[in-house]
Specification:
The complex is a heterodimer. By secondary structure, chain A is an alpha+beta fold. Chain A has 10 helices and 10 strands. In chain A, the strands form 4 sheets. Chain A has a 4-stranded mixed sheet with strand order 8-1-10-9. By secondary structure, chain B is mostly helical. Chain B has one domain: Formate dehydrogenase/DMSO reductase domain (Formate dehydrogenase/DMSO reductase fold, Up-down Bundle), CATH 1.20.1630.
C-alpha cells in the first residue's frame, strides 16, 4: 500500500511539474502542446506538424500524464543524434493486470502471422489455496546490451543499433534460426509462412496488408521476406521515428509499461530504473537487458 | 541382380527425396514441423551427423598419411572418399535448413566475426578443397592409368579427373612423382588435422557457445563432438571395408586395427558422455535437468538407451569381441554399421533435448499457437527429404566407388602409397595390428 501512495505522490509532483512547465512553455516541447492546446497556448515545435501531436485523452486520469510525459521525452530524445539515446522499457508488474492488450496491440501493429509473437504475457501463479496470488510478466525483446543473438548471426543480419534497439535486416537474414536458439528469453520467433485463414476459401485481406516494421512497407508474400526470416520486437522503431510511443505502451490499460530514453537522467524510465523494486530477467547471464521490471 | 535392385532402390529414394525437396523449396519452411521455440530439428541433426562422419573419416585418413599407420593403408582412400561425400551431405542438409537458401552466399559476403557459424562455413569450404586435393593426389597415378588402359566412361573419367597428370615412364621420374605426392599428402594431412578438428569441434561450438541452452553450454560438448566424430568415421570405414573391401591376406589385420581403434574411441566417448550426464544431473540446474531427464528417462530415453548406448556402444563392442573368436568379417562390418546408426541417435540427443523446456517458465502457455510449442516430431516432408539426401549421397558414393580407383590401391605398381622404393624410414612409426 505504501508503495502505491508513494507512487501517486510522485505522480502528483510530476503532474504539477508538467503543468508549470506548460505554463512557462513558449516554444519547443511538442507533447506539452497537446495539453496546452486546451489552454489555447499555441507553441509550434520545429519540424513537428500540429496534427501529429498527442491529444489528451482525459485530463481526469492522472495516469494519462505519464503518457504525455513519455511522449514529450520521446520528442526530446528524437531531437538528439541516434547514438546519444538509449531506449529502455520499464514494466511495472504490480500494475499489470494481465489483459494482454499489449500482445494484441503488437500483433495488430506489426500484422504478425501465426507463430510470430513479440510480446506474450506470461502468467505466474504463486502459493497454495487459499493463499494464492497471480503475477503477470509481459516479455518483449530485452534489447540486451550484450545481446547473445547478434553475436551468433553468421551474416550480421541482426545487429545492435546505436540507440540500443536490436534490429533485423530482413533482406540479409538467411533464416538459419541460430539467433532463436541463442536468445535466453525466447524473444525471437520465426515467420513460417503460415496464415490464419489458410485452408479457408480465401486468405483474408487483413493478412495480406503490408506492415511497416523498420519503416519498410512489406506485405507478406510467399517465400519473400519477412517470410522465412526470424522476427522480433523492435520497440516499434517505425513508430518512434514518427514520434509515437511503442504500440504496447500506448495500449497498456493499466499504464504498466513505460518507455523512454535511459541516457536522459531526467526521463521517466531513468527515474523508475532507480527504484529499489527494479529487476531484470536472467541477470546472471550478463546480457544486460534494457527491459526492466518493477516487482 | 542384387546390384540392380540396390541402384533402383537408391534412385527411387532419391527421386522421392528430391520431390520432397521440391515441395520444401516451393512452399518454404512451413512444410516442416519445427516451431519458433523448437527451432532446429531433423535437418540439423543430420547436418551435424554428416559433418561428424566427414571429420571422423578424415582424421582416420590422417593416421595413415600423416602418422604412418601402415596397417590402415588399405582404407586410406575409402576414408578420404567418405570424408568428401559426407561433407557434401552435411552441406546439403544445412542448405535446406535455411529459411532463405537462395541467400547462402550472404555467408561469404556479409561477415560477422563473432559468429561461430560464419567461421564454420569458411572451414567447411576450405576443408572440402583440402579433401579433394588429397584424394586427387593419392589417386592420380591410378587415374592416369585409367585414362590410358580403360575404355568408355572410365577412360573419360580418368582423362578428366587426372587433370592432365601422367605417370612418368622412367623409374626416376616415377620415384620423383611418388615422392612429391607423398610429401604433399602429408602436408595437406597436417593442415587437415587442425582443420578437421576445427570443422567438427567448431560445429560443436556452434551449440556450446549458447548461454541460452545450459544443455549445450558446457565445454565438454565440442570435445564430445570430436570424439563421437572419430567413432562414427572409423565405424563407417570399418563397415565399408569389412563388407566391400578387397579380400586379401592383409584384410584381417587391417580390420583388427580398425576395430581396435573403434573400441578405443567408443570407450573415450562413453567416458565423456558419462561425465556430462553425471555432472549435469548432480548439479540439477533446472533447464539442463529438464533436457538431461528427457534424454535419460523421458521422451528421448528410448533413443538414448537403444541407440546411443545399445547400438553405438554395447552392441559393437560385443560384436567385435565375438568376431575375435570366430574371425568373422561380417560381424566386424555389422559392428561398424550398428555404430554409424547409433551415432544418429547421439546426434538426435545432442540437438533436440535442448528445446524441451521453455526459456522462461510459463512461456509455453503465454500464447497458444501450434508454432509456439516445445514439442517436435519431423513432418513427412522432412523425413522424406532426409531419406532422399541420404540415398543421393550413398548413390554418389557407390558410383564413385565403382568408377574411381578407391579399392584398387593394393597394387604396388599403381599405388602412390608404398614406401619400398624410396628411402624414407617409416619402420619406427609403423603400427601393426
Amino acid at each position: 500500500m505504501s508503495e502505491i501512495t508513494k507512487e501517486e505522490g510522485t505522480q502528483k509532483v510530476s503532474r504539477r511539474q508538467i503543468i508549470s512547465d506548460l505554463a512557462k512553455a513558449t516554444f519547443g516541447l511538442a507533447a506539452g502542446v497537446a495539453v496546452v492546446s486546451a489552454t489555447k497556448v499555441q507553441a509550434e515545435p520545429s519540424g513537428a506538424p500540429q496534427e501529429q501531436l498527442p491529444q489528451s485523452l482525459s485530463k481526469q486520469i492522472p495516469q494519462d500524464q505519464m503518457v504525455l510525459r513519455m511522449q514529450r521525452e520521446l520528442y526530446t530524445a528524437m531531437q538528439k543524434p541516434v547514438d546519444q539515446r538509449q531506449w529502455a522499457m520499464v514494466i511495472d508488474q504490480r500494475k499489470c493486470v494481465g489483459c494482454s492488450s499489449c500482445t494484441v496491440g503488437c500483433k495488430a501493429e506489426n500484422k504478425l502471422p501465426p507463430g510470430v509473437i513479440y510480446r506474450p504475457v506470461i502468467e505466474e501463479e504463486y502459493g497454495t489455496f487459499p493463499n494464492v496470488a497471480r503475477r503477470f510478466l509481459p516479455r518483449p525483446c530485452m534489447h540486451c546490451t550484450n545481446s547473445p543473438c547478434t553475436k551468433v548471426c553468421p551474416v550480421g543480419a541482426t545487429y545492435k543499433r546505436e540507440d540500443g534497439i536490436v534490429s533485423i535486416d530482413y533482406d540479409k537474414c538467411i533464416g538459419c534460426r541460430y539467433c532463436i536458439s541463442a536468445c535466453p528469453y525466447g524473444a525471437r520467433t520465426f515467420d513460417w509462412g503460415d496464415y490464419y485463414t489458410e485452408g479457408t476459401p480465401e486468405l483474408q485481406k487483413y493478412e495480406l496488408e503490408p506492415a511497416f516494421e523498420y519503416g519498410e512497407k512489406r506485405a507478406r508474400t510467399k517465400n519473400e521476406s519477412p517470410i522465412n526470416n526470424t522476427r522480433k520486437c523492435h520497440f516499434c522503431l517505425h513508430r518512434l521515428n514518427a514520434g509515437m510511443l511503442p504500440m504496447c505502451v500506448t495500449t497498456c490499460i493499466g499504464r504498466a509499461t513505460y518507455f523512454g530514453d535511459k541516457s536522459n537522467p531526467e526521463s521517466l524510465v531513468s527515474e523508475l530504473i532507480g527504484s529499489s523494486r527494479v529487476l531484470r530477467l536472467k541477470e546472471e547471464l550478463g546480457t544486460e537487458p534494457n527491459v526492466y521490471y518493477l516487482l | 541382380m542384387l546390384k540392380r535392385f540396390y541402384y533402383s532402390l537408391l534412385l527411387l529414394l532419391t527421386g522421392v527425396g528430391f520431390w520432397a525437396l521440391g515441395v520444401r523449396f516451393m512452399d518454404g519452411m512451413n512444410v516442416t514441423n519445427l516451431t519458433s521455440y523448437f527451432s532446429w530439428g531433423l535437418w540439423v541433426v543430420f547436418y551435424i551427423f554428416f559433418i561428424g562422419l566427414s571429420a571422423g573419416s578424415f582424421l582416420l585418413s590422417t593416421m595413415i598419411y600423416v602418422f604412418k599407420m601402415h596397417a590402415l593403408e588399405k582404407v586410406g582412400r575409402i576414408s578420404l572418399l567418405s570424408a568428401l561425400i559426407s561433407l557434401v551431405a552435411g552441406l546439403m542438409f544445412v542448405l535446406i535448413d535455411l529459411g532463405h537458401p537462395e541467400r547462402f552466399w550472404h555467408t561469404l559476403v556479409y561477415r560477422n566475426m563473432s559468429s561461430v557459424l560464419e567461421w564454420e562455413i569458411h572451414f567447411y569450404l576450405l576443408y572440402i578443397l583440402l579433401v579433394l586435393g588429397e584424394l586427387w593426389l593419392v589417386m592420380r597415378d591410378d587415374l592416369s592409368a585409367m585414362s590410358l588402359n580403360q575404355i568408355g566412361i572410365r577412360r573419360i573419367l580418368g582423362k578428366v579427373l587426372s587433370l592432365g597428370y601422367r605417370t612418368s615412364p622412367t623409374s626416376e621420374g616415377r620415384t620423383q612423382q611418388i615422392h612429391t605426392a607423398e610429401r604433399w599428402v602429408r602436408i595437406l594431412g597436417m593442415i587437415g588435422i587442425p582443420m578437421a578438428i576445427g570443422v567438427h569441434g567448431g560445429t560443436g561450438s556452434i551449440f556450446a557457445v549458447q548461454i541460452a541452452k545450459p544443455f549445450w553450454n558446457n565445454s565438454i560438448v565440442p570435445i564430445i563432438f570430436i570424439v563421437s566424430a572419430l567413432v562414427s568415421g572409423s565405424a563407417l570405414v570399418t563397415f565399408l571395408y569389412a563388407f566391400f573391401g578387397k579380400k586379401d591376406s592383409d584384410k584381417p589385420n587391417v580390420l583388427a586395427s580398425l576395430t581396435n581403434l573403434l573400441i578405443l574411441f567408443i570407450g573415450v566417448d562413453l567416458i565423456l558422455v558419462l561425465a556430462e550426464f553425471l555432472v549435469g544431473l548432480y548439479s540439477g540446474i533446472p533447464e539442463d535437468m529438464h533436457s538431461l531427464k528427457a534424454v535419460v528417462t523421458g521422451q528421448y530415453g528410448l533413443i538414448f538407451w537403444l541407440g546411443q548406448i545399445g547400438m553405438a556402444a554395447i552392441l559393437p563392442i560385443l560384436l567385435i569381441r565375438l568376431s575375435r573368436i570366430n574371425g568373422s568379417e561380417v560381424m566386424k562390418g555389422l559392428a561398424g554399421l550398428s555404430t554409424v546408426i547409433g551415432i544418429i541417435a547421439v546426434r538426435i540427443n545432442l540437438v533436440l533435448p535442448a528445446y524441451v523446456s521453455p526459456q522462461i517458465p510459463g512461456l509455453e502457455n503465454a500464447y497458444v499457437d501450434s508454432r509456439l510449442v516445445y514439442d517436435y516430431f519431423p513432418s513427412s516432408i522432412e523425413i522424406l527429404s532426409t531419406l532422399g539426401i541420404i540415398a543421393f549421397v550413398v548413390l554418389l558414393f557407390s558410383i564413385a566407388w565403382e568408377l574411381l580407383p578407391i579399392v584398387s590401391n593394393n597394387d604396388p605398381k599403381t599405388s602412390g602409397r608404398r614406401t619400398e622404393n624410396y628411402g624414407i624410414d617409416t619402420k619406427g612409426t609403423t603400427h601393426t595390428a
